[in-house]
Amino acid sequence: MADENKQLLIVTGMSGAGKTVVAHALEDMGYFVVDNLPPTLLGSFWDLINNSNDFHKVAVVIDLRVKTFYTDLLDEVNSLEDNGNVQATILFLDASDDVLVARYKETRRLPPLANNGKGRLLDGIQEERHILTPIRNRSNYIIDTSNLSTKELKQKLINTFSDRKRQPFSIEVMSFGFKYGMPIDADIVMDVRFLPNPFYIPELRPFTGLDKRVFDYVMNKKETQVFYKKLLDLLETAIPGYIKEGKEKLTIAIGCTGGQHRSVSIAQQLARDLSKKYPVDITHREVSRYIRK
Question: Is 13 marked as a binding-site residue?
Fold first, then answer.
């Protein structure tokens, strides 16, 4: 009997329509993905999945690379469903003939039915389209990728198949010290080592930017105020663009020499101002080095 907790998604469609992109995106969404499975093995494969507790969301990519068996696909799907093993979902990827021709020319590859390079590209594409018509008509979802960017195609998959959907946009503001290395996961890095340094003020040296005395010293300097206003204007201009491009989390790293005074102060103020519009987390990477036990 079918395990209602297990999902089978069959990905098929025109060669060159984006199945490789879809396979990678589904893996990122938690699917166990098998590429280029002959349709005649679908039943045996699903028996293995059904007898395992390790796989719950499974996607199988099937296309005309296995053209000898492709005509069996509908029969195999019907057999699975008739036996009550699973209710399969079929995703068909399509694109216009002219887009497919352009993609093949760009990659210098040939469609599966291009007669080993002796036939015309368009002839092979149109023959493939004819063969795939029955499975296209049976599909639960059809996505035309002709005018979709890779990012747009991935987002469409998330909207359709992901349990988590799209995460809300958030920002992480991080302070760090250059002498301990730059953070490799930062999207934006700002160097504030040019600002007046509390390190050279004996009564401030032992403390961090979390201390009001250090914070006020850094933020009340005229050069800091001029710089900070421009920085905040820049970020408020750029952040909507990151959101539009599909960014889910933006990491802004503020660095000074040791990650103790200036970077911490700027990061504190930046997190405070950005949190008026966006969810913000703040991390002070080096502060624990300077806090007395």
Answer: yes
